[in-house]
Design brief:
- The chain is built from 10 helices and no strands.
- The protein is mainly α and 234 residues long.
- The chain has a single domain, classed as CRISPR-associated protein Cse2 (Peroxidase, domain 1, Orthogonal Bundle), CATH 1.10.520.40.
- It is globular, with a radius of gyration of 17 Å.
Amino acid sequence: MTETTPSPSPAAVQQDDPGTPGADTGAVDDAAKPNLTQSLFGTAARLQASYLGQRDRSEQAEARAFLAGLRRAAGRRAADEPMLLHSVLAALTPPLSAKEQGSGDAPTPSESAAFAALTLFAWHMQSATAPMHTEKRSLGTALGLLMSKRSSQSLKPRFDALQLARTERSRLQHARSLISLLRTESIALDYGRFAGDLRSLGGSRRQTVLLQWGRDLANQLQHSRSAPPTPAQS
């Protein structure tokens, strides 16, 4: 199954939402530059390689235990799991920038998105024998691949529910449902990009993310329908 090349993620274009309280809108040094997407991409790649046995056995055991611990919080908010949030932030390589880290009583938008993305990645990786994290594949593209393999009658309502969700708790529950479906077909996702999109959904760029997901899904479906059948399909 071939796939389209998605457009740049809104989250990759603008890492921090200008409406986020406390966001620094002035010039920042390298240590303060937004780093969420890079951080999640690198962390998921490292954990995935260890989990799949591409590193030594001790790292594999550590990665499997760590992801198993995160899996129970998949679909939950960082604010509801403060102790586990600490473990997630400590595991990020590279870490979030100083601008993205908080000092108050609640997680910042970047901390919340990092927690959500990594716990959903852990959910996606359960019993995996192949990579579930890949480069440059948005949620929309991944769902387009999924719809090209199975009926969209049950998938579209779930995707619509995610798009219509107005609270973080509801969004994450619907996202977990979709990730479960991607897992059944071993369809991977770019978790760095996904983390950035999750953060943007809570800010003024929500509509931009939803529009891009819809475009990516439609483009992938059209591409799949027009692609010549593989030998296994003919």
